[in-house]
Amino acid sequence: MAELYDYIIVGAGSAGCVLADRLSADGKNRVLVLEYGGSDRSVFIQMPSALSIPMNTRKYNWQYESEPEPHLNGRRMHAPRGKGLGGSSSINGLVYVRGNPLDFELWQEQGAQGWGYANVLPYFKRAERRDEGGDSYRGSDGPLDTRYGPMRNPLYQAWIDAAAQAGYPITSDINGEQQEGFGRMDMTVRDGARCSAAKAYLRPAMKRPNLAVVAHAMAEEIVMEGKRAVGIRYRRAGQPHVARASREVILSGGPINSPQLLMLSGIGPAAELRRHGIDIVADRPGVGANLQDHLEFYFQVACKQPVSLYPYMNWFAKGLIGAQWLLTRKGLGATNHFESCGFIRSRAGIKYPDIQYHFFPLAVRYDGKSMVEGHGFQAHVSPMRSKSRGSITLRSAVAMDKPVIRFNYMSHPDDWTEMRAGVRLTREIFAQPAFDLFRGEEIAPGADIVTDDQIDAFIREKIESGYHPCGTCKIGAADDPMAVVDSELRVIGVDGLRIVDSSVMPSITTGNLNAPTIMIGEKGADHILGKPLLAPSNAPYYVADNWETAQR
Known about the structure:
Its EC number is 1.1.99.1. It comes from Sphingorhabdus contaminans. Pathway: Amine and polyamine biosynthesis; betaine biosynthesis via choline pathway; betaine aldehyde from choline (cytochrome c reductase route): step 1/1. Belongs to the GMC oxidoreductase family. Its cofactor is FAD. The chain has 552 residues and is an alpha+beta fold. It has a domain at 150-184 and 295-383 and 411-462: 2-Layer Sandwich (Cholesterol Oxidase, domain 2). 24% of the residues lie in helices and 22% in strands. It is built from twelve helices and 26 strands. Strands 1, 2, 12, 13, 14, 15 and 26 form a seven-stranded mixed beta sheet that branches. Strands 8, 18, 19, 20, 21, 24 and 25 form a seven-stranded antiparallel beta sheet that branches. Helix 1 (14-24) packs parallel to helix 12 (514-529), helix 4 crosses helix 12 and helix 10 packs across helix 11 (452-462). It is globular and about 70 Å long. It starts with a strand and ends in a 23-residue tail after the last helix.
């Protein structure tokens, strides 16, 4: 006997948690959320500074890997995706960056009607409860807590001061009117603990009798009746189940799982479906295409003063930090340590920032797998708008078989130009007087890495993913053959099926993806419920007057 609901949401990630809350809020809609992972209650998820642990733990992470990347010496790139309540918002770096206003203007130009900056800003505001208070740009009474770090380490301010000395602007709020420049970075933290989408949206909603959340449930196929989605086949504890939706099925599995489930259900490129013996329901060549991501390298410098986080990296010190956090929710355990940042343009003629910086007062890989001995600091240098495109395809017609992930990183020559600029512009910032007291030798790339060929070799061997995949089920106009969903996130060519997650982004945003994915969940909920959309904002945004003629 099939279980019957009004709405079925597949995936309790950043967008799925928003939908679970908003769709069940009236107490009438019967809503089912299916999630393959389990609980998010682990101390390693909840303590902000422990972020590298769930990022590397199979219990909380799909632990995907790419196919060998031909332009990166054949390396297989790590592609973590959250598995558990909160999805990737439970294992990410807790960074809150909405993107640049012009990202959303570009979405509109690319066929995502009604997704321009004026349209999406009200949804960013509705989601947010900012510790520092709201204004024309920032929210003050939403479910998602954001705040600044305490900036106690002098290296954070040295980073901002050095950028100013290099001639870059200082911005009071990278998520406000002016993203371009250097300043403080927001994090999703509430009372010293991670504020994931599960904590912000899902857990409060789980008290409602009309919301059911089923963990450890593997969605295997969308149940179709002709061209209409009517339910989900899933497996739990080895047993098959069917849940039926009287209104809609909504995929929120993310940029890898959502296209995989579509293809397993007969919606995708016809040739790919035939290759695996899957009956074609709708030939949508854009399913799994348009895969985008951010790459980043770590520009690492030794520190002459004993002010970095290095002394806290031994197990005894970590234990003390953990104990303090458990008792008080304060101290070094209560921050992600990404407390200052920057957004710059790589050259004249670029209208808005195409390089993002996270500053970190330690020389270590993002996933914590390798650390430089001794005091150091680093900038994560990440070009924002790669022109390379990859794909998600099926490995087999079995849901448990991980899909084939080809990012095709660095396949466009412009990507190499941006990376080289990133090395040289960052080196210039670290050479400023603000770092004179702290600056030791350049650890990476290394002071001897100066020519294009040397930089390219460094990039091929050392570049890492920023873990921001998106775009594999993009929003587009009805006449765009590569569009997968329309502007209301309905899958084109079938009925009763929507996608609400980062896979619908036509192009990647300038920054980390958790904030815009939550925004997509907020706006998507209004589309699903047929509610009037929030009134567009008339808040202005910054574009440098000299962008056509100067890099800064």
